[in-house]
Amino acid sequence: GSGPIQLWQFLLELLTDKSCQSFISWTGDGWEFKLSDPDEVARRWGIRKNKPKMNYEKLSRGLRYYYDKNIIHKTAGKRYVYRFVCDLQNLLGYTAEELHAMVDLKPDKKDDE
Questions:
Q1: Which residue from 38, 50, 67, 95 has the highest number of Cβ atoms inside 10 Å of its Cβ?
Q2: pLDDT tens-digit profile of 4-51?
Q3: Which InterPro entries match (predicted)?
C-alpha cells in the first residue's frame, strides 16, 4: 500500500542510502542497526513527515511502539542500537547481507575467524 511512510520504512530507506551512513548504519550483525546521530535521523523524519518539532525523544517513542508489534527491538546494553525483528527478508526480497553490500558495509570478521 502507498499510504504515508512508516518510521521503520523510513529507517530502512536511510539504511540503504550510502549518503546516510554517517548518522545511521548497519552494525554488520544481521538486521541490527545503530543511530550514530539520532538527532539527525529525527530531523530528517520530521522533514519527511512535515513535523518540524520532531526530535529523538519523539522518534524513540515511535520505535518503542514497534517493540510490542515485533517489528523492531532495542538491543540491550547498547545506546541507539536497534534490530529489525520482522521478516524483512520476505518483505524486501533481500538478505541482511545483501543490504549491507549495497552500502559497501565491510563484514566484520572478528566473530568467525
A1: 38
A2: 899 999 999 999 999 999 999 999 999 999 999 999 999 999 999 999
A3: Ets_dom, ETS_fam, WH-like_DNA-bd_sf, WH_DNA-bd_sf
- Tell me, yes or no, whether 108 lies in a domain: no
Which residue in the block uniquely carries the three cell numbers 519523539? 58
- Asked whether residue 11 is domain-assigned, the answer is yes
* pLDDT at position 97 over 90: yes
Let me know: does 48 contact 78? Beta carbons within 8 Å. Answer: no
pTM for the structure as a whole: 0.88
Answer whether residue 88 is part of any domain.
yes
CA 4 – CA 33 distance, rounded (Å): 23
Whole-number Å distance between alpha carbons of 100 and 78: 20
User: Cβ neighbours of residue 113 under 8 Å, at least 6 residues apart?
Assistant: none
- CATH number, domain containing residue 78: 1.10.10.10
